[in-house]
Amino acid sequence: MTPAMPMFPLGMVMLPTMVVPIHVFEPRYRQMTKDCLEGDREFGVVLIERGSEVGGGDTRTDAGTVARIINAQELPDGRWGLVAEGMRRIRVSRWLEDDPYPQAEVQDWPDTELGLDAEATMNADLPPVAAAWRRVLALQSELGAPGPPATLDVSDDPSIAVWQVASLSPMGPLDRQKLLTADSAAHRLSLLAEFLADAEEIIRARIEMG
């Protein structure tokens, strides 16, 4: 039987390589945090499709990411401030009872392996996608919107870089979920190129409108 993994359904999509601050205030997730810190410091994050992060009764996606706690601070009133990093994709095989917090049986979900031709194509496609990403970041800065600097470096490995760029790009949870569930790194890079082109067009239009 697959060991149960603590799960933290959120109104956002966590991607591998993404570093996210998480404010833990519900008693059930305070307990989950303590259990994780006593174990391997890992929990699963999935997107809430319908419902709220607070109180339960939500509808959740079955594709998510394993997050690892890299920093944890307990506050005087029992709340926690966490910093977690996305590690790898998972699929939920079966949801268990939310007792004392959401848990599920999960399986790691590695990307489909690419052939040599696809890898070569990705290596060729990454630089223009990274350039489009930097243009979007620069345009965001011109608008005064918060975001990382356009000079930020990413990995030379396209399969890692695509996660890094996606994590730091302006897009909504549904677009991020599409990237998360793409069947291969090559497909993910193609989707990311489309999303960045749309984002650049929208931001340029906003700038022109003043």
Task: Walk me through this protein's architecture.
There is one protein chain. The radius of gyration is 18 Å and the shape is globular. The protein starts with a strand and ends with a helix. The protein has two domains: 4-108, LON domain-like (Archaeosine Trna-guanine Transglycosylase, Chain: A, domain 4), CATH 2.30.130.40; 116-209. It has a five-stranded mixed barrel with strand order 1-3-4-5-6. It has helices at 27-38, 116-143, 158-167, 173-180, 185-209, and strands at residues 4-10, 19-24, 42-50, 59-74, 80-95, 103-108. The longest helix has 28 residues, at 116-143. The protein has 210 residues and is an alpha+beta fold. Helices cover 40% and strands 29% of the residues.
